[in-house]
């Protein structure tokens, strides 16, 4: 069964550094999403992306965050200047439409 | 804004007992509702998806119901096993996104 692939599985970075989280959605899916889950908390919506533009974003998704689909297969989340509170599990999802399939996540640790 | 609530937050049962997990949502204009399983430190595994036009979905020992008018969904797990121990999340889709509840953490005692 096709699946959403996320890399790396774990990333450690220093506060203030830029990070790029990568995702390969399922090939025929058209809608892409990023979610995050801080340890012990709810899964929170960050952003949805369709037709090469953001469909919706949450209040968490401020100017420090950006998304991009640089080619036909990858979908990336960039955090420009990481803060300690960005430490979380980040999940990518894709759908065609509305039935979301999630990747296994990238655990981001900001030190 | 969609708010999803799951009660109870945690549940411990002996092996073989049936599980009933509850989910409520504030905005009944959901397109669908999904139930997920999450093991500690792991990703989200989709268990069942119920379209807004459906009343229930079944997969093996799992059955999920949806009542849009009352804003509720229930996940039933029959004859629980220790391997069912995990956190179960429900999430409603509307306004271009899924909104998640905080989950019910289930422990099945052998």
Structure explained in plain terms:
The complex is a heterodimer of chains A (111) and B (110). Chain A has strands at 5-7, 10-13, 19-24, 31-37, 43-50, 53-57, 65-68, 75-79, 88-95, 101-102, 106-110. Chain A is mainly β. Chain B contains no helices and 11 strands. Chain B has strands at residues 4-7, 10-14, 19-25, 32-38, 44-51, 56-59, 62-67, 72-77, 86-94, 97-100, 104-109. In chain B, strands 2, 4, 5, 9, 10 and 11 form a 6-stranded mixed sheet that branches. The interface between A and B is medium-sized, with 21 and 22 residues.
List key phrases describing it.
heterodimer, A: about 110 residues, mainly beta, four-stranded antiparallel β-sheet, B: about 110 residues, six-stranded mixed β-sheet, five-stranded antiparallel β-sheet, about 60% strand
Number of helices of chain A: 0
What's the helix count of chain B? Answer: 0
Oligomer classification: heterodimer
Helix percent of chain A reads under 10%
Mean pLDDT of chain A, as a whole number?
Answer: 93
N-to-C series of helices and strands of chain B: EEEEEEEEEEE
Distance between the termini of chain B: 41 Å
Helix-strand category of chain B: mainly beta
Short structural summary:
The complex is a heterodimer of chains A (111) and B (110). With 111 residues, chain A is an all-beta fold. Chain A is built from no helices and eleven strands.
Q: What's the layout of helices and strands?
A:
The complex is a heterodimer of chains A (111) and B (110).
Chain A: E1 5-7, E2 10-13, E3 19-24, E4 31-37, E5 43-50, E6 53-57, E7 65-68, E8 75-79, E9 88-95, E10 101-102, E11 106-110
Parallel strand pairs in A: 2-11
Antiparallel strand pairs in A: 1-3, 3-8, 4-5, 4-9, 5-6, 7-8, 9-10, 9-11
Chain B: E1 4-7, E2 10-14, E3 19-25, E4 32-38, E5 44-51, E6 56-59, E7 62-67, E8 72-77, E9 86-94, E10 97-100, E11 104-109
